[in-house]
Write a structure and sequence with these properties.
There is one protein chain. By secondary structure, the protein is of the alpha/beta class. It has twelve helices and 17 strands. Helix 9 runs parallel beside helix 11. The radius of gyration is 21 Å and the shape is globular. The mean pLDDT is 96.
Length: 377
């Protein structure tokens, strides 16, 4: 179902070789006129057949309120839940709503039979992550009570159908308090039929060091929440050195640890829906990568006439190109890398796939998902 483009290939030749209609290949892979291809590009080739038993999973992803309407409407048919990013809160437990508003997303999701999920993050009034907010809420029962009351009221008034708690940079001293807070939110919200999930930094061991990891206890949070999403991405990130965003060898290590601490039926795998373009040479503290979509990454390879390579260890595509005397390195997701992540979901019996983020539409991902899994709304 996945074809890697070779030198001299055209859409017509690939269609003849695979037996798939030309128009189906063009549509499935979002190939723009005049239908140019990059050597090394992977194409999803529709067959119309279901070659294996499909596993039921939940499919969801995070969106900002300013998502393009065409992207939203194209993506909703493939989702069970829409995670709307994001509600912050004050040290006193008052909610801070998304500046762009969320009513249109809630309505669109509900209209498509998709559950709109409120995302709660420690965002302050300036829109910045603030770990002191985590300390304020987990350390004060009165603040917790006020915040939970505000959450419940907002869920009911706006028509949300659940909460996702995405607390990053939790301090080591708040480790148990954070898990207790999640448990308290779940116990209250479950009474009214609202599930509570939590996003987890990608740990590979219980005692992993680092600001992202020390305050996150997989066992406690797996018990406290109805479900978890592993944030298995951002190994390659905006200010880091060039590398795969979600190398499958590292993703596997996180999953192996997670299933040792959390029931696998509670676990969803995080999948990136983007890539990065780094100008070279990389200098720590100075180099900033450009965030690009998978479709943009392929088009850039076509425009600069370069071959796309595939790292078998990371199971991720990459390439280099020159522009204005500067060499660039690009890593992104394609049908092969996504297929490897879907294989991991099936191998470990995980319950879902969650995307950061859905602001771009990459059709091969969703067609592969339809082939491998059943999405039950």
């Amino acid at each position: 179902m996945i074809y890697t483009v070779r030198e001299g290939d055209t859409v017509d030749l690939i269609a003849a070789a695979t037996g798939a209609p030309v128009e189906d290949i063009i549509y499935a892979n979002q190939i723009a006129y005049p239908y140019r291809l990059a050597v090394g590009e992977s194409l999803y080739v529709p067959s119309g057949a279901r070659t294996r038993e499909r596993t039921p999973i939940r499919s969801f992803g995070y969106v900002y309120p300013f998502i393009a309407e065409t992207v939203l409407q194209s993506t909703l048919p493939f989702l069970t839940d829409l995670y709307i990013f994001s509600y912050g809160f004050t040290p006193e437990g008052e909610l801070i709503e998304p500046p762009a508003g969320d009513a249109h997303l809630i309505g669109a999701a509900a209209g498509a039979g998709v559950d709109p999920i409120m995302v709660l993050t420690p965002l302050d009034a300036a829109g910045h992550f603030n770990d002191n907010l985590v300390t304020a809420v987990v350390g004060d029962p009165d603040v917790q009570e006020r915040l939970i009351w505000n959450l419940g009221r907002t869920l009911q008034e706006k028509g949300y159908r659940g909460i996702n708690i995405d607390f990053e940079y939790v301090q080591a001293g708040d480790r148990e308090g954070f898990a207790d807070f999640v448990d308290r939110v779940r116990r209250v919200m479950n009474v009214f039929g609202y599930p509570v999930t939590v996003a987890l930094a990608p740990k590979t061991s219980a005692d992993q060091k680092g600001q992202l990891y020390e305050g996150i206890d997989y066992a406690l949070l797996g018990e406290a929440a109805d479900g978890v999403m592993l944030m298995t991405y951002e190994w390659g990130y905006t200010y880091g050195p060039p590398m795969a965003v979600a190398p499958i060898n590292m993703v596997r290590r996180v999953v192996e640890y997670a299933v040792s601490s959390i029931p696998r039926e509670k676990i969803s795998l995080g999948i990136p829906n983007y890539g990065y373009d780094w100008p070279l040479p990389y200098t720590r503290g100075k180099t900033k990568a450009e965030n690009i979509s998978s479709a943009q990454a392929v088009q850039r390879a076509i425009d600069f006439g370069v071959e796309i390579f595939f790292d078998e260890t990371a199971r991720s595509p990459y390439y280099h190109y020159w522009q204005y005397g500067i060499r660039h390195e690009v890593w992104f997701e394609d049908a092969r890398s996504i297929s490897a992540k879907f294989d991991l979901i099936r191998e470990f019996g995980l319950s879902g796939a969650g995307y950061w983020q859905l602001m771009n539409f990459f059709r091969p991902n969703w067609l592969l998902m339809q082939e491998r899994f059943s999405i039950e709304k």
